[in-house]
Amino acid sequence: MALSPRAARSASGRHGFPWRAAGLVLVVLITLTGAGLITFAATAPDPVGPPQPDPAAAPQSLLSPLVDEPTAPEPTPSEANAASGTTHGEAHSARGRLEADPGSTATRPSPAPKVAGMPRSQPTRIRIPRIGVDAPTLPLGLDRNQQIAVPPLDQPKTAGWYKLGPSPGEVGTAVVVGHVDSRATGRAVFFRLGSLKPGDTIEVPRQDGKKARFVVNGVARYPKKKLPLSLVYGHTGKAQLRVITCGGDYDKAAKSYKDNIVVFATLAP
């Protein structure tokens, strides 16, 4: 199912949230699995090959917030009492006092700070210090085939922001794409994207003069025909970023890589 640019905007809401429109998600899937996104006829494999992500760095589920740290299992009452020297009766009384006094903060953990999204603003660059990326960005819409347009082949060092979705820093899932390599110039802007690790940072300067700083939560590689759409593009209620390029083995017949590398990142406090 293909949507016109006008239909895509209408389905996505005021700021263009395409992930809420199933039709546009199909357009994205077709783009990723076809020749429209980062795979292109002029692509040539690097003799060494682009770095591939560590399987341990892949996010496991969209249901557990990507930005949250795992918490230790809560001890049983007997374990807690043994560690503190408190009897079961004392623990029961203490628990009753705590429940009766909701204003007490002595034993209540502080909630994790919530990160509010930023106003909408077009990104101008993307910087990823760990892999030496400092590249300009340009807005991308849909091409004449109703697929996501790509950075021009003669600009392999330029990244593209999908302008029908959220802007980086805005609440929602912003998407930035880029080539992995080029027959004409060799390594392209996101050649080393697969070597990122959780905890690395991504900075996106914007036209409003502000910078959206993201922390990498995970890096994964997926076959283009089996891209988990809900995980990659799902709206989590947070300001998140996905950076996508090609990866995996190179298919000489198709002149493209078989997989996509996806970086998951969340706006930092």
Q: Please give the domain count.
A: 2
- CATH class of the largest domain equals Mainly Beta
Helix run count: 5
| CATH T-level fold name of the largest domain | Sortase, Chain: A
Strand residue content: 25-35%
**Shape estimate:** globular
Mean pLDDT: 73
Low-confidence segments: 1-42, 62-107
SSE pattern: HHHHEEEEEEEEHEE
Main features:
269 residues, disordered N terminus, alpha+beta, 2 domains, two-stranded antiparallel sheet, 17% helix, Sortase, Chain: A
Explain this structure.
The protein has two domains: 5-64 and 115-267, Sortase, Chain: A (Beta Barrel); 73-111. It is globular. The longest helix has 13 residues, at 88-100. It is built from five helices and ten strands. The model is unreliable at 1-42 and 62-107 (pLDDT under 50). The strands form two sheets. It has an eight-stranded mixed beta sheet, with no helix packed on it. By secondary structure, the protein is α+β, with helices and mostly antiparallel strands.
